[in-house]
Amino acid sequence: MSDDRKDASMESSPAVRIERLNTERTRKVSGSDTTYQVYFELSGRPQPEWGRIFEREWKGLNLTQKASVEGSFLVVHCQLEEVAATQFPSLKKVVAATNEAYEHYAQKEATALRGREDRWRQERKEVDAVAASLRFD
Q1: Cα separation, 90 vs 93, whole angstroms
Q2: Residues 76 and 88 sit within 8 Å (Cβ to Cβ)
């Protein structure tokens, strides 16, 4: 490990936002007359842990509709009539909760990383001190 090493996944990043409903990708679910896969474009591609937190938060709402993260999209399976009234407000709520939980997670991971790096540096100092005390003739 070096002092310059940084774990990009743990760096604080701007909160993920829902940018728009992607009309090109949104389409009916195969075999259904009423259910659509509704694609909401995100402000960026979230980290995998953000996606896991989102799915946990979504399940916590106990909604019957399925929602998932696919790359830089949130995908909800629902009827189009539900989007404005229930799904979009629910998504905004879950995204806000996910951003908060992810920030807490990232801070915790960054603290743990700093602790590991500090221990590694201390170990290197101890090894260097022993090496410096030896006399090779």
Answers
A1: 5
A2: no
- The closest of 79, 2, 87 to 40, measured between CA atoms, is 87
CATH of the domain at 117: 3.30.1360
The number of C-alpha atoms within 13 Å of 119 and in the hemisphere containing its C-beta is 6
pLDDT digits (tens, 9 = 90+) for 27-36: 999 999 999 9
| Percentage of the residues of the chain whose pLDDT score is greater than 70 | 91
Distance between CA 77 and CA 101 in Å, rounded? 24
Q: In angstroms, rounded to a whole number, what is the distance separating the alpha carbons of residues 114 and 3?
A: 10
- Which DSSP helix (H) or strand (E) runs through 80? helix 80-82
Identify whether 135 is part of a domain.
Answer: no
Inside any domain, residue 38:
yes
Domain that holds residue 73: 17-129
Q: Is residue 85 part of a domain?
A: yes
Query: Looking at the 3D structure of the chain, how many domains does it have?
Result: 1
In a domain, 7, yes or no: no
Pairwise CA distance, residues 2 & 6, whole Å: 9
pLDDT in tens, 73-83: 999 999 999 99
